[in-house]
Amino acid sequence: MGTFAVQFAKALGARVTGVCSTNNVALVKSLGADHVIDYTQQDFTEGTVKYDVILDNVLNKTFKQTSKVLKPNGFIVPNSIGAHRSKWFGAIPSFFIKPKRYPTFECLVNSDNLNQVAQMMESGKVKVITDKVFALEDTPKAVAYMATLRARGKIIIRVVDN
Predict the structure, then answer these.
(1) Cys staple from 129: which of 3, 20, 52, 118, with CB 3.0 to 4.6 Å?
(2) Alpha-carbon distance 87 to 77, whole Å?
(3) φ, ψ at 79 (rounded to 5°)
(4) Domain spans of the chain, in order of start
(5) CA count, 13 A, side-chain hemisphere, 105
């Protein structure tokens, strides 16, 4: 999700800060991020920069921690329950207290939106970043790899050999 998020945000004109491990700094920069924070060196929630939107793909910080670096009208988009469910569920009271800070989104699949995505991909503004390709019979290995939360792009299951 993160590789697409950086590219779509840049294609739509946003200034993007990516947060990743040391191994992924070069990749995130190559996707167009304006600034990259290596979380092994710096905790973005302890910084002074304030953000309009935070897309949280791993939820390894509580909403309270992440809220410290939001602008007054900013919001957090939790992308999944992630590996740190207890922190997410522990934040539910703040979720209900300030619902505008944790909005829900609906994906509107329509021809206009799909055409915009297609144009971004055709123009090269957005590319599919592939990490690993697994044969169909290795699907359990692919799922296990996905569960490590260490994929550096999409994981592909090859259904037919060419």
Answers:
(1) 3
(2) 15
(3) -90, -20
(4) 2-125, 129-162
(5) 12
